[in-house]
Design a protein that fits this description.
184 residues, mainly alpha, Ribonuclease iii, N-terminal Endonuclease Domain, Chain A, two-stranded antiparallel ribbon, 12 helices, 2 strands, elongated
């Protein structure tokens, strides 16, 4: 995962980019290092037994918004949280389906539960209630305007990505613990 940070270090600004923006682009690797360290720390605090050995590099992908990697101002060539968010979204949906099956819910009940538990607002709330901050999400808006607000959709994508990172690495206990937070 360190290649993401290195991708931003090696990023080449688009010719003609103003100096202020060039300076801000060069701050992204440090922002990602700090953000992923904070995320790892928050995970360890949320479940010390499960995340005791987690490092910043383990979770850095979740910190990188897809829109940041696709900016026209520079070329990164690094992955964002998008692919792991797809995996996480699938696992969260599966957890909801299993829950509904075990509760003998009708297809309509499943649809309602899935809509309630997997909406951007719901996943955003899970992320905030579990980790108590979204300061570890690095977006273009935050790079350009420190303290810029993060949307529910961006938080949801981050949460899904976090679930997906662990699922893709075969760490089902961590992925399932996170995915099942939608029921709290």
């Amino acid at each position: 995962m360190a290649h993401i940070i290195e991708g931003f270090r090696a990023a080449r600004p688009t010719p003609g980019l103003n100096n202020k923006t060039q300076v801000l682009v060069r701050t992204i690797p440090k922002l990602l290092e700090d953000a992923s360290a904070l995320l790892a720390e928050r995970l360890r605090a949320a479940n010390p037994a499960l995340f005791a050995e987690i490092t910043a590099l383990d979770v850095v992908v979740a910190c990188v918004s897809d829109a940041l990697c696709r900016r026209p101002e520079f070329s990164v060539g690094s992955e964002s949280n998008r692919c792991t968010a797809y995996v996480g979204d699938s696992l969260i949906t599966l957890e909801v389906a299993v829950h509904c099956y075990n509760k003998l819910l009708s297809p309509h009940g499943y649809q309602q539960m899935r809509t309630q538990r997997t909406s951007a607002a719901a996943l955003s709330a899970v992320l905030l209630s579990t980790l108590a901050t979204d300061a570890f999400l690095v977006t273009w808006e935050r790079v350009m305007n420190h303290g810029a607000a993060i949307s529910d959709a961006q938080r949801a994508e981050c949460f899904e990505s976090l679930v997906g990172i662990f699922e893709a690495r075969g760490e089902q206990a961590r992925a399932q613990w996170l995915a099942r937070l939608v029921f709290l």
